[in-house]
Structure formats: C-alpha cells, structure tokens
Amino acid sequence: MNTSLNWIKAMVPGLECTDQEFRDAMTLSGTKVEGFERYNKNLEKIVVGQIESVEAHPDASKLVVCQVNVGSETVQIVTGAPNVKVGSSGQKVIVVLDGGKVAGGHDGGALPENGIKIKKGKLRGVESFGMMCSMEELGVSSEFFPGADPDGIYFLGDDAEVGSSAIEYLGLDDVVYEYEITNNRVDCYSVIGIAREAAATFKKEFKAPVVTKTGNDEDVNDYIKVEVKDSDLCKRYTARVVKDIKLAPSPEWMRRRLMTAGIRPINNIVDITNYVMEEYGQPMHAYDLETIEDRKIVVARAKDGEKFVTLDGQERNLDSEVLMINDGKKAIGIAGIMGGENSMITDNVKTMLFEAATFDGTNIRKSAKRVGLRTDASGKFEKGLDPENAMAAMDRACQLIEELGAGVVVGGAIDIYPVKNERKRITFEPEKINALLGTNVSTDDMMTYFKRLEIEYDKDSNELIIPTFRQDLLRNADIAEEVARFFGYDNIPTTLPHGATTMGKISFKQEVELEAARIAKFAGFSEAMTYSFESPKVFDKLMLDADDKLRKTIVISNPLGEDFSIMRTLPLNGMLNSLSTNYNRRNKNVKLFELAKVYIPTGEELPDERVQFTLGFFGDGDFFTMKGVVEEFLDEIGISNKLTYNADAKKNFLHPGRQAEISYEGKVLGYLGEVHPKVADTYGIGDRAYVAVLDMPVVTELANFDIKYTGIAKFPAVTRDLSMVMPKTMPVGDVEAIIAKRGGKLVESYNLFDIYEGSQIKEGFKSVAYSIAFRANDRTLEDKDITPVMDNILKDLSAAGVELRA
Amino acid sequence: MNERLVKLKENALAKINEADSLDKLNDIRVAFLGKKGELTEILKGMKDVAPEERPKVGQIVNETRAAIEEVLEDAKKSLASKALEAKLKSEVIDVTLPAKKTNVGHSHPNTLALEEVKKIFVGMGYEVVEGPEVEYDYYNFEALNIPANHPAKDEQDTFYIDEKTLLRTQTSSVQVHEMERGKLPIKMISPGRVYRADEVDATHSPCFHQVEGMVIDENITFADLKGTLAEFAKQLFGPETKVKFRPHHFPFTEPSAEMDVSCFKCGGKGCRMCKGEGWIEILGCGMIHPHVFEMSGIDKDKYTGFAFGIGLERIALLKYEIDDMRLLYENDERFLKQF
C-alpha cells in the first residue's frame, strides 16, 4: 500500500511533521512504513515559464533560442527539444533557473543520488540562463502525464501561473510512503484507513471526505433489476446508473493523486473508479448498460467447464465455485476479479452501471488462484471487506462523477444487503488490560485512545462499540493492543517474569547429540547442514536395490521441483554432495559431520523422525580412522564394552570388502565403510571416501553418563604374548571373541601388536600377534592362575583353525 | 706425616682444579681417596705414629679427606652445570617455525548461534524441547488461530504431504504440543528446522531454522515479554544493545510486536549492515492469543503468557556478517573453518 502525504493531510488538517517523523510515528503506532520517496528531493528553483519567442540558433540546426518569461524577468534559454518550434510562442513550460537542480536526465534512466545542478552557460556560442524540462528530468515517468511528448519538454496547462512554482502545480511537493499492512487491518488498505491511523497517531482530528447526496429525479429501478442468487458469496451488492456520459481526461489534482498511487490516468470514469478504490479501499466496476441484456443483473455461481472472456481478451476457465455477474442471458463479469469483454466501457459509452459490492474474501482468493487471474480488485476483496463501505464508496464515486461533469447520476441506488454488518460490542475491562500489559494506564487515557479510533463506549452496559471497519477487534486482548499502540509500546515498562523458579535444562537426547558434535569436532570433523528433502533419483545414485525399503518415502505434494520432492530416508546424499563440493573446489583432507533427521514412513500419518549422526571424509585416513572416531564417541557416552562389527552390512553404496554394521549388546547402532568407488564416481569424488552413520535414537537409549571410579590396580599385571597364524579370511575379531570369552574375569585387556602377510607366511594365511594382560585386584597372579586360562584360550583358538607359533 | 697430608691435599686440589670432565674427577677421587688411593697409603703409616698422637693425626686425616671431598663435589656441580649449559645452547630452536596443530573441526554457524541462544535462555530457566518437522496441519495452523482459509496459510507457502499433514512452517507448532501436555508453568524454547516454499537465493532457503520461545504462568505481562527479550538481546549482541518494539500482527498472539535491536555494527548511527536505519529487525513476539489457550485447554482467565520466534539463520548471518544464505548449506570447509 502506497499513499501520498498530501492526500493524507487533506483528511488530517493541521498535520505537521517531517517526512521522517511521519515514518517513525506511524511505524511505532502499528502502521509500518517500509520506505518513502520525496518527489522534490532534488528539484530546486523550478518555475512556470511562458515562451515569448523561438528563434533559430545561428550555428546549430538542432538548437533553438527561446525568450521565456519566468515572472520576474524574461530569460534566454537554448534548447534542443524537438517540440519547441521556431516561430512558436505562448506555451507554458517548466523552467529550471540558473543554479537550480533537477532529478535526472531526459532519458529517464536511474536517478543520481543528489540530482543534477543546472548552471548558465553557452551552447554553441549562445548564452542560456536555465533549462526547460521534460517530466523525466523531474524524476517522474511521463506515462502519468498524458499528452507528454516522450522526446520533448512538457507543456503545462493554461491555468499554470507564470512565475509560480511548477513543482506545486505538478503536485510534486509530496512524499509517497510505502506501508507494510498486516492482513488483519483490511481497513488500512485505503487512504482513509491510513489517514484515520495518522490522525490518531498525531492526536489530530480525522476528516473523512464530505459526500453529498447525488442523483437526478429519475429512479434507478427503472433502469436495472438486480438479483443475488448466491448471497453466501455476496454479502452486499450496490449499483447505480450514470447516463449522458462525457468521457474526458480527469482534472490535474486527480491525476496527480493517482500518480502517487502508481496508477496511470485513462479517462474520468476509469480514473474515478481507481481513485475511489484507493481512497476507500473498495473496488468498483463499470458496465456499459447498453450491453446488459434484459436490463437485469444476476449474481450467481458459474457452471463447471464454463468459459468466459475477460476484458483483457483472455479466455478463462470457470468452475462452480467461481461467482459470476450475469445479465438476463449471459455472464458479463467474474465477480470481484475482472469484468467481461462483452460489457466493458468503450469510448462510445452513453450509460453505465456502477457496481460496488462485497464479495466473500476466501472465495475470491481461491477463485483468483484457480482462474489464474489476480487483479488489484481481487487483491482487495480477498482480505474480506466491510460491507458498510460499499455504499459509502458508491456515493463518493457518484459525487465525483457530478463534480467532474462526467455524466448524469440517476437517482436512487440498488442495495441488496440481506444481513447488515452490525457493530460488535466488547465488555470494557480496564484492569484486565493493564494486567495483560503490565501497565497502569488510566481509564480516561484509554477512553481518549478509543475516541480517536472511533470506538464508542456504552456506559450502561459497560461495553465498547466497535466500528464496522475494524473487523480485527473481537475481544479484550485486541482492545489491549489498541491501548498498547497508543500508550506507546516504548512506554510499557520492562520487567522479568517473577513466578515460581523453573530449572533451565536440555534433554538427555540433546546432551548425547552435543557429545557427538564435541567428539566429531575434536577428531577434526566440521559440522555440515544439508536439506531434509531430496530427489528420488538419490536411491539410484546410491545403488539401492529396487525393493529396498528405504525407497519408501514421505512425498511432498507441492515440491519446489523433483530435486526437493521426498523427505530423506538416509542421510548420505547430503554428505556425499558436500564432500563432492569440497573435492571439486580442491579442498584437501575434508572431514564433515551432520546431526540431522531422516524421515521413515511408518504406515501411520506421521513418519518416524530419527536423528542420524553422519560422518564423512576423504584424504588422510582410512576405514580404521573412521572406526576410531565412532568408538571414541561411543566410549564417551558410556557405550564402552566391546562393539560387534559385522562385515556383511549389505550396504550397496559401500565398498563390498570394507563395510561393517556396528552392534552393541545385540542392537544395531549403525554402519561405516568406504564409499563404493562407483558411488564416489557418481558424486564426483575422485578419492577414497569414508562414511559412518549412527542411528541416534538407538545410541541414546544405550547411552549413559554415569561414572563410577573403579580404583587404580594395586597388583601388577601379568602379560602373555600370543603369536599365531590364521587364514587370511578369518577376522581377528574371532580371535578377540575367543580371548574375551575364555579369558574370563582375569583378562584385563588384549591388544593386537602385529599383523603380517607375506613371504614368510604360507599362502592364504596371515600372522597375528596379541598381547594379553591378566590382573586380579586382590593378589599378584602366578603361573598357576594363568596357565589354565591360557590353555582354554589356546584350545578354542586351535579348534577355530588358528595355529600357534613358537 | 703431617707434611705428607698437606702435600697430598695441595696436590689433589691442584688436580681437581685442572680436571675438565666428570670422568677425570672420578679418576682423581679414586687416586686420592680410593681403597688403593694415596690417602689410604698414608693411613698405613699410622702404626708408626705415637699412640698419643694418633687421635690428632686421625683428625687431620679426616679433615684432609673432607676437604678434598668437598672440593671434588663443588667441581662436579660446576662441571655438570657447564655441561647442561652447553646442552641447552646446542638445543636452541626457531620458535617461529609453524605449529603442529591438532586439526579440530568447527561448528556450523547456525549451531554456534543456536548454542548462544540456548545458553541465554537455559540460564533464565527455560527448558529446551523439540517437536516433529512433519506435522499435522492442526498444530501448525489451526491450533495457532490460523483456521482453514486464513490468508496467512497462503502467505507461508506451505509444503504439504497430504490434506492433513505438512512440513511445519514455524516452530510455533511446538507451543501447542507443550500446552497440551498441560504441565504449568511453562518456560521453554524450541529450536528446529522449518520449511517454506521459497526458491533458493542469497536470502531465502526452503529449509531453515527457527527458535520458538514461550512462557505461560499466572500474571505474565507484556512488560515481562519486553524485559525478557531486551535481556536476551543484550546478552546476544552486547550490553550496549537497545531494543525497540513495534506493533505487528500474528494470528496466535495479541498484542503482537516485532523487535528491532540497535545495529550492533554501528551502534545505531546507520551503516550498510542496518541499511542506514540504525536498527535491525530480529524477531516477532506477542502475548499468547486467548483463543490459542482455549484450544489447548488452558484456563485463559487464570494464565497469560508470551511467545516469540527467532530466525536462526538471520541471527547467524547478521552476527557473523555472512552475506549469502546459500553458504550455510554448501558446507565448503573453508567456510565452516571460520566458525
């Protein structure tokens, strides 16, 4: 919404403020000003002049030398404007005097911040004491000034007074404010609405336009009949008739105001319609009455599949929820959106039907969307207008018709208004208002605010009576906001809640996640964030089986595109893309982690949202580097017993010989491995890459932060080294399982200290050496304690096909 | 005998003085004081000394031994310290050579900002709670006073799964879950991902983060809301930070406000960051709408409360002066390492 300050001032007499003061005060009282632009910011010493003579330039064929009366004197100005002809005189022109300033060049390009200075000088040897301007040089598009020659200077009307300010004459001594109006304040999508707020903000009186009675002694009912069939979608329908129409340009003042709203003037009828829409926020439509068959208007829903040509010449597809304006035989307009080509006003119009109606906001919004046509009118209607405003706007428009002599208004008005919009009543509870705000505003002060907002008070019932245009005021909290706005948000004290003390805390789940991030960062991994949605093509990139259950996803019904259309069921795509980005930007040794959700369909309405701890890297390190990070983390959160690694993790996207599923006490925690070279290639990662994924809900369930000190061993440990030869294919994990199982309580730890495959070892075998530490906490162990345990271990090892070496 | 002892002592001291290594000192000790050393030799002559003289001579012998030992010890110390000095000298390093770093990873700027926000509110007694991202329409809209056909529903460009479920457009949905739990008073914040159908550009992302906050208790006022958020702003942006509340509209709060903070770069004078305004818009807030209480089954006559919503990316971009939102989701390590 844009309004000019002069238009506002016309309704708020005595409003005095700087441009910035207006902006700040309005914003703080709730009408947020996004920005403003003063037309005459860089316009100085610009007056109305009159050309007295035009002579040819002695040395330049494209220049002419003019004598221009600027009131106090006559000055010589040389111009190259093609519309100033030798021998002509009498034209009223815009003159920038020596030392003055204009906003821009005549090409209408971007305006320089500080304008352009105009100084006297010589043009091809002839002195020139100023410049005659086009509208573009004043910083305004000539499209708002019909008749302006786009290549030449602008000629003013005969009523312009020589020597007076051309800026004032052109209405450029004005500021345009742009507001952000919230959708609850429908009333503020109009100049009147903003002016009313401005009056309340600056404690001035609001003066609405004075609308006089209009119409001749004829009766509109002799011209037209109106029937509203679907009154659920049309709360009010008003209509009047104007005959003997004389189309003409509208007067300067109206054109200037339309310019401030960014509306191009067309002719008096169209301009009046637009003017009233801006002023009252009520869209209107004009039909050529001659085209209305049976002299009858019927407001009713369209039929499915019906087609209709709107006045822009486009054919529109309708359905049974689109409200139409029909005559006795056919449709003539889409209600609230756009009129039809078949009934539009043309230059030959004699008699017209003026319509101001209140259509259902939601229906208009949805219809506009389905029909694919959003107009200024539908934009207003969809906010849900006040039906009381319709007749007020109609009367204002007819008043302007008479004032401008645009036609003869027929007496009387059609007004179909089955359920009157009554003023709401809200019990006045000043204590509750103060309690909610934490203030101590007096009842008298509140009453002052209410009066400025046109909220009345009924003493007998202790009720506030709300004007119909304030559809947002429904209950005490809404009234509290009005009090707060005009008491001033700034004046409300600042306190802290002083109820019962509450404990600030984070959940156990969040603590485990923090720990994951801490360990990952400690191990050199930086935190990544990737989108939760991705393309279904991801599953092929990751080579998932056709029937993999991860292919079953939550699908977004209106995605931004296929690439963002499904909620991810595994977190690798984001990680691999991020690694790839880094690889392609030649970053070395990149390590990333992410803590974010996957969304697993459950068959219920909502998916299972599971946080995944995903790690990925390329560069320095290998499978066991990644395994180390995983174990560091799990150990840190109390998952410190032996983990099980199953090499048969069945992850197609991982290297078949370098992947493992990680389990703990029989529960699967996740997996890790080297990215399959084909997948790495698909993602454009030209190096070995490793990933690990931990399913945090399972991890969190097993985690605990309980720490119990177990004492430092008092008795020495006894170590035994075990050197063996075993089949290459047999995992050392099997050896460890035997040591752990047969070693019992006495085994304190065991460490792999050597592994070797090569010339001294027979083909298909490897040499492995472990050091086992035994310890008891109550005595020094002796051979007789250890030997039987070792025997047990050795027995099982040899049964498993492991040969002992000397 | 006396003379011999005096001579021995002089002889020994002279040698000690000349010695330039610990080995040599040891040789001297053995030569003079050892079992077969000179002093022992002299002692063998004791039997020739008159018995009444013996104690006296014995004393002299002991004194001689002690004197030599003392000097030996001093010499040893002095040599050791010289040796150490030489060693240290030979071990001088160039301390300006590059450090050997443990390459620790870095937090994402969003997380960094979130941790700051969390710390502030947890310190003020708020609990950090979470809610689902794939959500019922009811929790995201209807229970927040945004019924079907409300224009706000269109404005938020919602991603729908089906008629009933959607990707939440705001963390405000968590408010409703917390209120339904019915455990009062409530002081909570809830961070998380939210989604809106905005095309990716320098200031938009279809997937971003918010932090919701809510307090419900008896006698909570708009003044409490102002005080709480002013304190938050001071802690987050520095003690000099000023705040400004502007009336605004949200369907689920009444009265509602937007909060601006004085520009933390220029202090309010106006600069590029605040677009010359001196103020930066930070969050939306308000008193919880009575109808929201009604729908969640909380007694609106007994309780009042406030709520606020902060865009995390906005905080991160402003605080760390990041000029393009897309950087947050590219995960270029050269970017991440700066946080």
Task: Describe it.
The complex is a heterodimer of chains A (806) and B (339). Chain A has 806 residues and is of the alpha+beta class. Chain A has six domains: 2-39 and 175-201, Phenylalanyl-tRNA Synthetase, Chain B, domain 1, CATH 3.30.56.10; 44-169, OB fold (Dihydrolipoamide Acetyltransferase, E2P), CATH 2.40.50.140; 220-416, Phenylalanyl-tRNA Synthetase, Chain B, domain 3 (3-Layer(bba) Sandwich), CATH 3.50.40.10; 425-491, Phenylalanyl-tRNA Synthetase, Chain B, domain 1; 508-702, Bira Bifunctional Protein, Domain 2 (BirA Bifunctional Protein, domain 2, 2-Layer Sandwich); 718-804, 2-Layer Sandwich (Alpha-Beta Plaits), CATH 3.30.70. The longest helix of chain A has 17 residues, at 388-404. The mean pLDDT of chain A is 94. By secondary structure, chain B is of the alpha+beta class. In chain B, β6 and β7 (253-262) form a beta hairpin. In chain B, α1 packs antiparallel against α2 (22-33), α1 (2-18) packs parallel to α4 (54-90) and α5 crosses α11 (312-320). The radius of gyration of chain B is 42 Å and the shape is rod-shaped. Chains A and B meet through α7, α10, α12, α13 and β27 of A and α5, β1, β2, α7 and β4 of B.
